[in-house]
Amino acid sequence: MSSAVSTVITGIGELATNDPARAEGGGVLGLVRDAAVVVEGARVVWVGPAVDAPAADVQVDAGGRAVIPGFVDSHSHLVFAGDRSAEFEARMTGQPYTAGGIRTTVAKTRAATDEQLTSHVARLVAEMRAQGTTSIEIKSGYGLSVHDEARSLAVARQFTEDTTFLGAHVVPADTTPEDYVDLVTGPMLTAAAPHARWIDVFCEDGAFDVDQARAILAAGSDSGLRGRLHANQLTYGGGVQLACELGLVAVDHCTFLDDDDVSALASSGTIATLLPGVEFSTRQPYPDARGLIDAGVRVALASDCNPGSCFTSSMALCIALAVREMRMSPAEALHAATATGAAALDRDDVGVLAPGKAADLVLLDAPSYVHLAYRPGVPLVAGVWQAGRPVVPR
Amino acid sequence: MSSAVSTVITGIGELATNDPARAEGGGVLGLVRDAAVVVEGARVVWVGPAVDAPAADVQVDAGGRAVIPGFVDSHSHLVFAGDRSAEFEARMTGQPYTAGGIRTTVAKTRAATDEQLTSHVARLVAEMRAQGTTSIEIKSGYGLSVHDEARSLAVARQFTEDTTFLGAHVVPADTTPEDYVDLVTGPMLTAAAPHARWIDVFCEDGAFDVDQARAILAAGSDSGLRGRLHANQLTYGGGVQLACELGLVAVDHCTFLDDDDVSALASSGTIATLLPGVEFSTRQPYPDARGLIDAGVRVALASDCNPGSCFTSSMALCIALAVREMRMSPAEALHAATATGAAALDRDDVGVLAPGKAADLVLLDAPSYVHLAYRPGVPLVAGVWQAGRPVVPR
Asked: So where does N-formimidoyl-L-glutamate get bound (chains A, B) (predicted)?
């Protein structure tokens, strides 16, 4: 017998498990009605109809409300300093604004102390957790020097194992692209690698081209980092096909895709991670999620929380936008924000509620997960358990 | 000397007052930087730079964050029973759904007890308050019988003085339009009037035409109720011009307007209340807020919180949508959701933070009100004072 305390959450009106074994009758979400979940320590140990639930040390009554897996936000840029709301306001009102951009954040981030950066990330992570996000990926990318990229990742690593080295975010003003790629693939990579699981490149006109991205990802791979890619966000280009060719687990943005890109995604199995908060916050056209799904592409949703193009941390808003603007069904959108988000981080321990999986659960103040899209903007999270511990409300 | 306890909220990095006396230098929001507000009892007694603030019994430090007036949500339909998330899901995914519509909610509302209706409204009002809404209008309109309209308003009156009789929401299935207008302007009005301040008509193809709306508003006026109107939501029509001709304080929706409608609004001073959550939740085109404002029309924002076309209660989301989709500036949107919302209810005691006004304030977990649009979907409300009492966090 385990000595860990066990908890049964019963009275769950609608439980989304994402368990493929429950797809028959439960759809892509593996829904169970009138359900219970038993948690022991950090893991789920039992899922099923409430009437069959075993006893446990602690009993929690969901009161007929819905429970979903915690959100898995596979794309965020939380390590930064400074405020860019004035730049956002200028962009949305069509006013000129010359002082903005990533480089503003880089200057503020370099000037911040480790403690300031850590405190700022802690605040955003807590904000995310209060909104139901229990797993996150955090990128560097506002340091852009050997020292500042390494410390950005060291800060991020305090909050998640899924840290991503994004030295190749933009070329700093004081260097050439060639010299900077040499730095990123050389000393910066050496300093960053001990703190990172992933390496990422912003592959876009004005940032890094396909050949540079290929070289950076290859260097990362040699240092034990797995590749991810920002691609096809602002323009058509070869980034998505590079991701598919390299067999990356996910490629992010995918807003401007041609038929060959879609075919490559469908045949490679590389996940297309869509970030509709960006299109909302920049007034750009949305990616064609419906077309991707209908073509057989696996789609994940993530926040892209960052101070420039999208400062939302709300996975629920991403779901609402996916339904309103990208014609995903509410079930597809929730699955994309949980199970497929986990797959985009090559994680099989989160995003699914089944015996042996992480006890990362969200209790909604609603009878159905559909309310995440039906009630846009409304804070519906009534409780969050992370690794079995109730973390919201605190 | 008053015996009421006084509180000074100091350390306000950015205070939006909506005080026209502060427009010079403070813009439409009458912004004050590094500000303080002093509250005594239910009223604001002092506003100004923190360095000049008088002493008070209690001191609260805003820590450099922003404070805004509480939102004034001038259009909501909170008195109902039942859940229509399945209808929402069908609509958004293009599936047929025959069991939906207002009449479904009418049947559930009639079947609910007074206690059930009251409990449901209380839950939604608390949800709104936690999101910063301190003044609300609540309509009837899911009773559609003498008894059920009167009790709906009696329930609503427990939560606000701004109750609106909307017997003329839709013609029930078991009667003719002519007979129903006779009922609404006769016994139903008599039963409803003691519980209502306003009377409203859904003036639209398939609901009530302009002549019927005119007759219903006239009868309401004879019973001491002031008129409001749902108009031009789904089609072009004469509703907006009727509202202007009658000098109504506000006309709501205003999605399909021709040039004559805009001219009538600009010259009459009738406020156009826009409800962008509806367009978000029904995938309809948005009203042209930018065009209205540029033509000199006063624009308010409200939630239209209702179980059918828009089940958001988030005024912050309405602001974000107004900025993203209707090209209002963040300042215009906040003003529309506070001061102009108050004007749309002919209220001069709320929506403005100045001596003598209601102490309805919201502390944001952000340095600027711009974050309401810059951080869509993120719950940014850190504290709410309603009539001087701290009601959030509880």
From this structure: 142, 306, 308
